[in-house]
Structure formats: C-alpha cells, structure tokens
Design a protein that fits this description.
The chain is mainly α. The protein has a single domain, classed as Phosphotransferase system, lactose/cellobiose-type IIA subunit (Methane Monooxygenase Hydroxylase, Chain G, domain 1, Up-down Bundle), CATH 1.20.58. 83% of the residues lie in helices and 0% in strands. The radius of gyration is 18 Å and the shape is rod-shaped. It holds the Pfam family PTS_IIA. One of its GO terms (biological process) is phosphoenolpyruvate-dependent sugar phosphotransferase system. GO terms for molecular function: metal ion binding; transferase activity. Its cofactor is Mg(2+).
Amino acid sequence: MDLEMIIMNIINYSGEARSLCMEGISYAKKGDFDKARTNIEDANEKIACAHKSQTKLIQSEAQGEKQDFSLLLVHAQDHLMNAITTRDMAREFIDLYEVVHSSIVAGGSRVNA
C-alpha cells in the first residue's frame, strides 16, 4: 500500500472514530447509555484500524525505509491523536451523564437535556 493510501486510512478511520464519540456523548445526554457505549466500542474499532495503519509506517521506517517529510502525514497524526483524546473524554462524559441521570431518577425530578 502506498504512503498516501495509508495516510488517508488514518485520517478516515480517525474522523469516523471522533464522530462516533461525539454522537455517543449526545446519546448519553439523552439517557441512552447503551447506544452511547456502543458508539464508543465502534470508535475503538476505528481507532484500532487507524493505529494499525500508523504501525505499518513505523515498522517500515524502523526497517530502514525512510519517508520524506509529509505534511499530510502530520495531519493524519493530528487526527488520530484527536480521536483518541475525544474517545477518552467521551468515556468520562458518558459516565458522568449516567451518574447525573441516576441521581435525577432516584430523586424523582427530571432535567430536559
């Protein structure tokens, strides 16, 4: 697989993962924690695919196949890092919304999300 295709895989999978995480937060905000967690699981799969592509590049460079500097590769790395950070934060938001939702249900009052 050529460098540009690997880079585009990283960008595409990372973008999908980030979108899934943000959608998961929205589900949690509405109280649908099963869908929220399913989105995080799906995002994990996308991140794993992006990471696999990244690992191919790292392994080839470690074997002596040097690549020229690529701004597109830097961009792809940014996307992957952002997706991982968003996933980690989404997990926290989902947990927090679940605690808040449980407290509201236990207290008998309702908050419009």
